[in-house]
């Protein structure tokens, strides 16, 4: 009798254990299903196209003059004005430049392109407005401009190499004096950069012994040796013979592929189409259009942009 009673009382306990195990299995399945559906949601929301991926990786670039809101960028320019007496060289220019972005600025002569570019590192002092570089207002009177200029490489139309110095000396003098590099460190960096542009064998030559294209490549190396965060190019090929343009553009294309942030003023429309993330069209001291190369070259919206592109692409 006592044995039978024990067996009967054990049955409910076994049932409870089985029910508890079943409930645990159901909970696990529910968690699995919910995690699976969450994963599906992530996959379904993932960008499908290259453009969508770029949009997620890079914040949307907006211009205040067009009603957008400026986000934190490597460079933010707000309502920039530059007057030369009665001449309004820059008229309320606002623009962002993102880290790793290649921005190409085009437009007719006298449109304010070079004035704008040279204003970014205050080679041209704006009449009013703001230039925020890496979170610092460059126009704040308490800011040491020279410290921030060191982070902006500049390449001009003309090479501005010291004629009495060798190529190596031209490249290493600034990093040794301003960045306090040792001679050995600076020369090692210079040789690395010269190899990248195919001119390491010219390190001991003088500027007068180089072609125009070679001088401009040296000017780019000189700027890069300062380890800048952004490179500014002011019509770097305009003073070159046609056969030398390609070698300079190739160096710039390689920089873009390596992720260097670049702002380029140029009349080389092929370069703009191939390399630019964004093309900015300026006229009369204003930004009239901004967009991808496809948008600007295939479907310009303003009459001035249409006229300019028709003249340079014909």
Describe what you observe in this structure.
It is a single chain. This protein has 314 residues and is an alpha/beta fold. The protein has helices spanning 2-45, 50-57, 113-120, 145-149, 167-178, 183-196, 212-224, 242-257, 269-275, 293-298, 303-313, and strands at residues 75-84, 87-97, 102-106, 128-133, 136-137, 152-155, 230-234, 261-265, 278-283, 286-291. The strands form two sheets. Strands 6-7-8-3-9-10 form a six-stranded mixed β-sheet, sandwiched between helices. It has a four-stranded antiparallel β-sheet with strand order 2-1-4-5, covered by helices on one side. A hairpin with a 2-residue loop joins strand 4 (128-133) and strand 5 (136-137). The termini are far apart.
Q: How would you sum up this structure in a few lines?
A:
With 314 residues, this protein is α/β, with parallel strands linked by helices.
Specify Rg, calculated over alpha carbons. 30 Å
Arrangement of strands in the largest sheet: 6-7-8-3-9-10
Any low-confidence stretches, pLDDT <50, length ≥5? 1-17, 28-71
User: Could you spell the SSE succession in H and E letters?
Assistant: HHEEEHEEHEHHHEHEHEEHH
Average predicted confidence as pLDDT: 83
Strand content: 15-25%
Bin the helical content: 40-55%
């Amino acid at each position: 009798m006592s044995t039978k009673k024990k067996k009967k009382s054990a049955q409910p306990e076994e049932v409870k254990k089985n029910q508890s195990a079943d409930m645990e299995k159901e909970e696990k399945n529910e968690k699995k299903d919910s995690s699976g559906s969450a994963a599906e949601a992530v996959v379904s929301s993932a960008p499908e196209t290259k453009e969508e991926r770029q949009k997620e990786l890079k914040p949307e670039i907006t211009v205040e003059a067009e009603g957008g809101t400026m986000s934190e960028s490597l460079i933010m320019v707000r309502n920039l004005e530059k007057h030369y007496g009665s001449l309004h060289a820059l008229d309320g220019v606002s623009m962002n430049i993102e880290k790793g972005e290649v921005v190409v600025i085009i437009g007719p002569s006298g449109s304010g392109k070079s004035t704008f570019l040279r204003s970014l590192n205050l080679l041209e002092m704006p009449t009013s407005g703001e230039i925020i570089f890496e979170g610092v207002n460059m126009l704040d009177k308490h800011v040491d401009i020279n410290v921030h200029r060191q982070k902006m490489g500049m390449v001009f139309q003309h090479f501005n190499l010291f004629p009495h110095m060798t190529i190596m000396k031209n490249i290493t003098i600034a990093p040794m004096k301003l960045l306090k590099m040792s001679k050995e460190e600076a020369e090692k960096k210079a040789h690395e950069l010269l190899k990248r542009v195919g001119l390491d064998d010219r390190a001991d030559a003088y500027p007068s012994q180089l072609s125009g294209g070679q001088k401009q490549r040296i000017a780019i190396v000189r700027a890069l040796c300062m380890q800048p965060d952004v490179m500014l190019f002011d019509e770097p090929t305009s003073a070159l013979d046609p056969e030398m343009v390609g070698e300079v553009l190739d160096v710039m294309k390689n920089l873009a592929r390596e992720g260097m942030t670049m702002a380029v003023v140029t009349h080389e429309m092929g370069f703009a189409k191939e390399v630019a993330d964004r093309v900015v069209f300026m006229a009369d001291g204003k930004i009239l259009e901004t967009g991808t190369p496809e948008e600007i070259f295939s479907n310009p919206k303003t009459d001035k942009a249409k006229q300019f592109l028709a003249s340079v692409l014909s």
